[in-house]
Design a protein that fits this description.
Chain lengths: 312, 233
């Protein structure tokens, strides 16, 4: 920019050029964002940090997108300690969760049950003060599974979790960092089964670090999820939960009440088309494609939704 | 203010000084991996830097190694080190100490290499001329003339490498290593901000302590005559 008479006309020209852009930006920002879709408001879907959550997140996102919703994906945020507060604060509108574990998370004193209907009722009551609602749950169940390598199982004769009680103090447990604080993890193993481990190693959430640590012997017992295909593929032994520490962890979407009011029945109906078709076998199958065959969760979700006739 | 109060309470809690996650254990683990990485870095980089400085060859590369080395994304290096450690040293060593240690070595090399090169180049040509005139061989010149004169800058390079490595060793927590990074990574996962802050504070204090310790060592190791000549470095 030069000063003087030529500089002034330069400035005027610059302003004249900039005005349409400024106006366009104002119009775009006013028209974008939430709320103007009428009955199909834009939604932000979040997920926690393991691969099944990416698949579930994609399922919900794509079924909504196919029905005219604008979806913002905020996946892989962290553990429930991060994702649930994000749901409560409105940073995300919906996330996929598991009935019994979510109940234990929001209310440490509540008792879940092995009957999903009962767990759902208790959960919904506990969530009324949090401003969120649980929609229809699926038959698919994903619980915490404690696995050992075949060699360890053979050496120590381990088939069920009670078998760990006498030998626990010689073994190292590996899992996500929040495991020592969770009733369905190390805490529950101690109170229900009387298992105290020699040490705990924080790795990842039922992911490749845990698998590698099991294979490499850095941990003896690892937490993997029961719907994880890696267990079968790697020949790990999933120790049977004979004292029923794990409860009904059916998959269900959890959504903010204010979004539900805004979006109404069409949203509820669309989202609930997934639950009846999502069995544990279907979910494990999708997990295998992502974790073992290394396919993209987006593609795996799309293929499944098409096969189930939920999208075109 | 409550966060600082929580952090103070965290440090005051005796439970944090017991067991496998104890503060003293984590500090020692952190120092161990950092110390070994710096040691190997020095063993690799110092001879090369001294030789290049003495002969004056490949100066451009030697000087820019420091710049390029600073650009190494340590997080990516640690991730790469997992399969490398696993293949070279067996699956049992694919997590924890070895990938962390291997990924920290490339971080320690650049400051040591560049400083050694620049330090030896910086020795007054007249002095080396005189030494040659007196009949000293090349190795003798390097050992008895150039090295003592270059020592302040060389030690400064090692100090920089040590502080960088101590600060970056926190990444080891992402690959199942211990160290002070454990408090940061676990604190973030569990949303326990007092633990996270305590870990960060400990790393910062440790890095400062390493800096001060090296500074003191430099003052003791460098001959007073040379220190006066070089001025404040």
């Amino acid at each position: 920019m030069r000063c003087g008479p030529e500089g002034v006309s330069q400035l005027k020209r610059a302003i004249r050029v900039a005005i349409p852009f400024i106006v366009a930006a104002l119009v775009a920002s006013a028209c974008g964002g939430t709320g103007t879709g009428g009955t199909k408001p834009a939604i932000t879907i979040g997920s926690t940090n393991f691969s099944e959550q990416l698949v579930l997140g994609e399922l919900y996102s794509q079924v909504l997108e196919a029905n005219g919703y604008t979806v913002t994906r905020k996946f892989n945020l962290g553990a429930r300690e991060i994702v649930f507060p994000a749901l409560q604060s409105g940073q995300i509108d919906l996330e996929a969760d598991y009935l019994a574990t979510l109940l234990a998370f929001v209310d440490k004193t509540a008792t879940g049950s092995t009957d999903p209907k009962q767990t759902l009722a208790t959960l919904q009551k506990a969530l009324t003060s949090k401003g969120v609602t649980v929609l229809d749950y699926a038959p698919a169940v994903d619980q915490n599974g404690f696995v050992v390598t075949k060699a360890t199982a053979d050496k120590l004769k381990l088939a069920k979790l009670s078998d760990l009680a006498p030998v626990g103090n010689q073994l190292v447990l590996g899992g996500p960092a929040e495991c020592p604080n969770r009733e369905f993890c190390a805490q529950g193993l101690k109170t229900k089964y009387g298992i105290t481990f020699k040490d705990f190693k924080a790795l990842d959430t039922g992911g490749p670090l845990t698998v590698q640590a099991l294979v490499g012997g850095q941990i003896d017992v690892g937490l993997l999820f029961t719907s994880d295909a890696t267990i079968a593929v790697r020949g790990f032994v999933l120790l049977d939960d004979d004292k029923q520490l794990q409860l009904s962890d059916n998959v269900a979407p959890v959504v903010r009440n204010d979004y539900l009011t805004k979006a109404g029945d069409d949203f509820r109906k669309t989202i609930n088309t997934i639950a009846p078709k999502l069995t544990t076998a279907e979910l494990t199958g999708m997990n295998k494609l992502v974790e073992v065959d290394k396919q993209d969760p987006k593609d795996v979700a799309k293929a499944w939704l098409k096969k189930q006739g939920l999208i075109k | 203010m409550t966060l600082l109060g929580d952090v103070a309470r965290w440090f005051a809690d005796p439970a944090h000084y017991q067991g496998s996650d104890a503060v003293q254990t984590r500090v020692l683990e952190h120092l161990e991996v950092s110390g070994l990485a710096v040691l190997v870095g020095v063993l690799l980089a110092l001879p090369v830097g001294l030789y290049l400085g003495h002969t004056g060859r490949f100066g451009f590369i030697a000087v820019n190694v420091a710049n390029v080395g600073r650009a190494i994304p340590s997080l990516a290096a640690i991730a790469l080190a997992i399969p490398i450690a696993g293949t070279l040293l067996g699956a049992a060593n694919g997590l924890g100490f070895w990938p962390t240690f291997l990924a920290l070595i490339p971080l320690a090399i650049p400051p040591v290499l560049t400083n050694a090169y620049v330090a030896v180049r910086g020795v007054d040509g007249d002095v080396t001329e005189a030494a040659r005139g007196m009949g000293l061989g090349e190795a003798g010149i390097l050992r008895r003339i150039e090295l003592p004169l270059a020592l302040p800058l060389i030690l400064a390079g090692i100090r920089t490498a040590a502080v960088n490595v101590v600060a970056t060793a926190t990444l080891g927590a992402l690959v199942a290593f211990g160290g002070l990074g454990r408090y940061i990574v676990d604190g973030l996962a569990l949303q326990e901000y007092d633990r996270l802050f305590a870990g960060a504070l400990l790393v910062a204090l440790l890095a400062i302590a390493v800096e001060v310790a090296f500074g003191t060592f430099e003052r003791a190791a460098v001959s007073p005559g040379i220190r006066v000549q070089q001025g404040a470095l």
